[in-house]
Every structure is written in C-alpha cells, then in structure tokens.
Specification:
The chain is an alpha+beta fold. The protein contains 17 helices and 26 strands. Helix 4 packs antiparallel against helix 7, helix 6 runs antiparallel to helix 7 and helix 8 packs antiparallel against helix 17.
Length: about 650
C-alpha cells in the first residue's frame, strides 16, 4: 500500500509549528517548512505480521506493509517500560554496531484491553523514501560484483563474535533477516539463541556460507567455498578465517580504480565570536593544478576537531590535535608502506588508537602545565578518516591500493557516508545517551530526553590516555559516494539525515562542485542550527570511470577563521582561510613493483612502532608547545615545508 493512499496525517516535529498536520507523502511542513520525519519501524513477531496494511495502531502508527509501521507522530515519545526487559538487552548492548543492528524504539499495546505488547524497532533496513524493506542479501547475490559479495561476507564474519557473545548469533543464520543497503549488511531484527537445542557455532555459519556461495563461478567461488569448508571443520578459528578473507577482500578491491578529492570548510556560526573547531586539510595543502603534492597524507587524510574549554583553550586543543595527528598518522602511513605483507585491520586499529592516546596525553600535559582542572581543562573531539593505501600482493603482481578506509573518532563529531539514495552514520557518539543505552540502563529514545543526554563522556585531553577508548572502524571503498566529516554544528537535530541527500546527489551527478557543497552544508548549519561553530570535510570517492565535468575551479566561499589573541600566544599568530582542497588520483590499479618512499626508522614490531610514534608526537609537539609559549616564530605553522614522501598528482 502506498502512503499516498492513507487518510492519516503526519505531524511536524517542530514544537512551535502553528499547524503541524500534513498530508502523508509531502517532504516539508506546509506551515513552517520543517522537513517532515518519516520514521519507519519494524513490528516484531507473528501477531504484528497478521495486522492488515492500512490499519492505524494506537492512533499514531500507520501500517504500511506487514510488520512495517510508520510513526505519524514522531515528536511524541513512544510507549516504554521503566526498565528494559532482559530479553531485549542485546539490542541495547549492541548499540555500537548500530550500522548493522536495529534499535529498540518502543512498544505498542494491541489486542483486547491491550494485553499484547508488540516490540517496535527503529534504525531498520527500510527505504525511507518508499517504505519498503531493503532486499535480502541473497536476492541481490547473483547480480552483485565479486568485491561486494566478499565484502558482505566479511561483515557477517565480523558480526559473528559479538552476536554470539550476546546470544543472538542465530540472527546471521536466517537468509531473510540479512538485508543489504548498497555495501552495508543490515539485520532486520535479532533472534535469540536460548531456545535452540545447541548453541550456534562457526560450523553452523560455515554450512550457510557454503549454501550462499555454492553456485558462484571459479576462481572466486572456489576460494569462498574453501573458506566455508574450513569453517565446517572442528576447531576452526574465526581469526584464521578472517585473515584469509581479508586478503581476498583487499585483492578484489585493489583491482578497482579509485580517485579521491578532499575539500574542507569551517565557520564560527552566527552566534559565536570565535571558532574552536579545526580541520585538515588546511589551505596550505590546497591542490594547485599541475603541481605535484609531496605530502604522504595528501588526499588520504581528513580530520575534524571540535574544541572544548572556552576560547583560550578549546581552539588551541583542536589545532594541537590536528598537528599531532598529522605527525603520528604520517609515521604510521610510512611504516605500513615499508611492509611487504598486509598489515591486518586489527593491528592498524590498535596503532591508530595508540596515536589517539598519545595525542590525548599531549593535550593533557599542557593542561597540567597550565594548572587547568575539571571544566577548565581544554579538550577536543575527533573525527578522522584515513584512506590507507597498502600494497596488496597477488599472483598477478603487487597492486598499490586495497581501498581501505579507517575511521577514528572520540566525542560527538561524526562521519557519514552519503550517496544519492542513502545517508549512513558511520560513527558512534561518546555522550551520556549512548552510554546509558550501551550499558542496558535506558532505551535510546528515553535517554535522549535526559537533560544531559548530549554531554560528552570522553574527549581528547580530559583524562589520562589509558582511560580513553577511541572508536576505530575499517571500511572498504567499493562504490561512488561522499564521505562527510563534521562537527555537531551540522549534525545536531538530525540535520544531515534530513537535508544532506539533495546536496550529495548533486555532487555525485556532477551538478555541484565540492566547494559549493561544503559551503552549502555550512550555510545549512548556520540557518537551521546556528548555535555552534561548524566544520565540514568532504571527500568525494569515485570508483566508477570519471565522466568529463566542466567545473569552475574557483572557490565559491572564502571566509576567514581567526584564533583569539590569547590562543595565538599559545599556538601561532596567523589566521587561515577556509575551503582548502586536495585532488588526488591514486595509483592506477595495475600491478607494479613498490615505488621508493621516504622511510622513518621504524621496525616491523608493533610495540616498537607504537613507541616510536609516541616519541615522534610527544617530542615534536611538546617541544613545539614549549617553544611557542614564548616565541611568535612558527615552528609547526601550516606553511612549513612538507616532509618528503610519496609523490601523487
């Protein structure tokens, strides 16, 4: 049934709206032009499956299709018990896996005297435009390219252990439950293992794996079948299967072309007189046509930091974090480039987390030196993306780039993946609401109503690095899209989810430049939120062959972001212009011998690598801070010559 067939209205979420009732199917409120929220839910269980489409439940939930409900009053809190029942705790405790696992929305009482309580899930694999379930993985399996098939299997394998620990591994053994949205594996609901005769194990997953891959053509089909047979053997280990599958995934991805372009922008906003945000790349890394970039991070690294601690602290912390991260990540990239074997994702993740802790301690040391305590301590959030171009050995030679994208975040700055069709939040916020849900103490919608829901639970610089828990994720770039990093000046009030798709679609259709898109997102933040600084970094990822595009390379926006006088005395004394961009085309995906690169004196030992990284950052940054406190000279200013490294267009 189409939503246009419903006589039920949908209500605006703007509490100040004078006429919140709107016709279903419209995008914006007729009275106040606020984007209407279409929140589709999955009603769990056999009773829900029997409710006819077109029904209106509890005077608010319109049944679009069997078990797919639309909340027509999304501003109202759902029905929730005071304490989460034990049987739904896995949904709460698996919140960090929200990219793949639904969230509990609420309950709906049905039947005589409301005797039956139906569980309603949000963040479910339902198309927000049509209200239809996204297809099951196996429905698209035959048409999917090999790299996507392997990537789907990789995600399932990574979900196996956490779901097994939560007693819901059966969720991965039901083909209809495994839905896909582009590259993303997305579960429709969770199924408990408690009622089964035997607890699921890797052999059970191997059985289904063999079924899924059974009709694939060689040689890929043969390799995946071999992995399935290994999983069926007693004593098989997930770690061993993961290592082999990762090598296959990177080999498949490395055969694809990849082109990246990066643009950033920052603005103090209409209500602030200074900007505590910082981002990378800066204007001094700006791409100039015909000029080769010698910086090893050019076009590969993006950072957004949102400073905390006032104009004499927050902006210093954010700038300090960006400079420190560039040092640490640069050392890591150089070390990985020198390796002859693939560095596994867990090891890269551990090293990135260690870099974050060293950066944290650098800021914390500065706090201690200045006698800052409690709320006076300067700190910063972090959202970082690194496209790590590892050399991938294959039987056909060595390919230069496995399309790995590593995300590192702390605090509430976010990373999104945008296409013309969907918006995916890739990171998890470190705030009170998230903590309460993850610990199983509150429902998500319940936690959001707390007065302190958005208060940060961790940020760089507030406490010792050993107490920081950075979030690290590894993705594979195998489709065209935009990677968006932003501070909460843009992401607050679900502004990205409700308003960024049109901008992304225009960029991906070559109808809008990245510079114009960045400026448009900042304007959107200032108009709709406006309460905070806003920083945006956009990375256009092009995997498909590039079409000829006629763009004016001139900037559409050129505002200035200046540090306060007090901060200049601590950090550096020149302002930086906005909207820098880097245009980097990766090495072509043809096998070759390794290209000479500048090599730091790091060994292959992980512990030694981390020790040297700490020395590089602490030595460089603490020396920089100690000198800069008493000197106006620019020791780590943006116009410092870049270190030698990979040369890319």
């Amino acid at each position: 049934m189409s939503i246009a067939d419903s006589s039920s209205p949908i209500y605006c979420v703007n509490s100040s709206c004078t006429d919140p009732s709107n016709v279903l199917g419209t995008r914006f409120c007729a009275a106040c032009q606020t984007p209407l929220v279409y929140r589709y839910l999955w009603a769990v269980g056999g009773v829900a499956a029997q409710i006819s489409p077109g029904s209106l439940m509890a005077d608010r939930y319109w049944v679009v299709a069997p078990q797919i409900w639309l909340d027509t009053s999304p501003a109202l809190p759902p029905e929730l018990p005071e304490t989460p029942p034990e049987e739904i705790l896995p949904y709460l405790q698996l919140y960090p896996l929200h990219l793949h696992v639904p969230l509990v929305y609420g309950f709906c009482s049905v039947g005589e005297n409301g005797a039956t309580q139906l569980l309603l899930l949000e963040n479910v694999p339902v198309d927000g435009h049509s209200g239809n379930l996204y297809p099951a993985m196996m429905d698209l399996w035959k048409e999917a390219p090999g790299v996507r098939q392997v990537y789907w299997l990789w995600q399932i394998l990574q979900l196996w252990t956490p779901l097994l620990q939560m007693g819901v591994a059966s969720s991965l053994l039901k083909a209809e439950n495994i839905r896909v949205q582009g590259w993303r594996v997305w579960l429709r609901e969770l199924y408990g293992d408690a009622g089964l005769v035997t607890k699921p194990d890797l052999q059970d997953l191997g059985y289904h794996w063999l079924t899924w891959t059974g009709r694939m053509s060689p040689p890929l089909g043969d390799r995946l079948q071999d992995l399935g047979k290994q999983m069926r053997r007693p004593g098989a280990e997930v770690e061993d299967i993961s290592r082999q599958l990762n090598a296959l995934l990177l080999e498949m991805a490395a055969r694809l072309p990849i082109r990246l372009r990066v643009v950033s922008g920052t603005d103090s906003g209409p209500q602030r007189d200074h900007n505590e945000d910082a981002c990378y790349p800066t204007v001094m890394e700006e791409f100039r046509p015909g000029v080769k970039s010698s910086h090893p991070l050019a076009g590969r690294l993006a950072i957004v930091c949102d400073g905390v601690g006032g104009h004499e602290g927050g902006e210093v912390a954010s700038q300090l974090a960006v400079n420190a991260l560039k040092l640490g990540v640069g050392a890591l990239v150089t070390e990985v480039a020198s390796e002859s074997e693939i560095t596994p994702p867990h090891q890269v993740g551990e090293q990135l987390a260690a870099i974050a802790r060293v950066v944290n301690n650098t800021i914390a040391t500065q706090n201690d030196a200045q006698g800052r305590s409690a709320r006076e301590r300067m700190a910063t959030t972090l959202a970082m993306a690194l496209q790590l171009a590892q050399k991938i050995p294959t039987k056909d030679g060595v390919f230069p780039n496995g399309h790995e994208l590593y995300l590192l975040n702390i605090g509430d700055s976010r990373v999104y993946w945008l296409t013309a069709d969907y918006c995916q939040q890739l990171t998890t916020d470190d705030d009170i609401a998230t903590r309460e849900v993850r610990l199983g103490r509150m429902f998500y919608r319940q936690a959001l109503r707390r007065p302190d829901a958005g208060a940060l639970t961790q940020a760089l610089g507030t406490k010792d690095g050993d107490l920081i828990r950075p979030h690290v994720e590894r993705l594979i770039l195998e489709e065209d899209g935009l990677l968006l990093l932003c501070s909460d000046g843009l992401s607050d009030n679900d502004l990205v989810e409700t308003s960024a798709l049109d901008i992304a679609a225009a960029v991906l259709a070559d109808e809008m430049s990245l510079e114009d898109a960045t400026a448009a997102l900042i304007r959107l933040a200032n108009e709709k939120n406006g309460h905070d600084n806003t920083s945006v970094v956009l990375i256009r990822c092009r995997i498909s062959p590039e079409k000829l595009a006629l763009f004016n390379p001139k900037r559409s926006t050129n505002t200035e972001d200046e540090l306060s006088e007090a901060s200049k005395a601590l950090l550096y004394d020149n302002s930086e212009a906005d909207l820098p961009s880097i245009d980097t085309e990766s090495d072509t995906p043809s096998p070759r011998s390794p290209r000479p690169v500048f090599s730091l004196p790091l060994s292959g030992s992980q512990n030694k690598v981390l020790g040297v990284l700490a020395a590089v950052i602490l030595g460089g940054l603490l020396g920089f801070l100690g000198f800069r406190l008493f000197s106006p000279e620019k020791l780590l200013s943006p116009d410092r010559p870049s270190p030698p490294g990979d040369v890319r267009e």
